[in-house]
Amino acid sequence: MSAEGLERQTRSYLSNNIPQIQEHGGFFEIQDVDEKAGEVTVAIGGACSGCGIAPMTMKAIRHRLPEELDGISKVNVVRAGGPRAAVMPTKTEEMEEMDEYEDYSPPF
Q1: Crossing angle for the helix pair 54-68 and 3-17, nearest 10 degrees?
Q2: In the sheet where 39-46 sits, what is the strand order?
Q3: Which of 4, 14, 62, 99 is the most exposed place for a label (fewest CB within 10 A)?
């Protein structure tokens, strides 16, 4: 599948299956697509950075996209930069390292 096709599939999946990102004031953007490797990089930012379930959302994206979408074998989830950057990136980093999030599967 082409890079454009993978990007379209990824955007559609996130909008339809993890709407909490945008409903809660966050956003996602597809930063990179490597169609040969089947790798997609998704950035999240805005309110996601201060959200207590952001690490779970990131984990869900990493695990579910390759399971649900043909042509995608790996997903990298990063924090957005620039004017739409995370508002509390250090807090999100701390949360990602917490053991409590290791085995948790979010309800979406």
Answers
A1: 130
A2: 26-34, 39-46, 74-79
A3: 99
The two three-digit tokens of residue 96, written as one number:
């990602």
For the chain, what is the domain count? 1
Residue 37 lies in a domain: yes
Asked whether residue 16 is assigned to any structural domain, the reply reads yes
- pTM comes to 0.73
The per-residue DSSP string of 2-57 comes to -HHHHHHHHHHHHHHH-THHHHTTEEEEEEEEETTTTEEEEEEEEGGGG-TTHHHH
Cα(102)–Cα(92) distance, integer angstroms: 14
- Give the pLDDT confidence of 33-62 residue by residue, as tens digits: 999 999 999 998 887 766 777 788 888 899
Domain that holds residue 94: 3-101
Q: Is residue 20 part of a domain?
A: yes
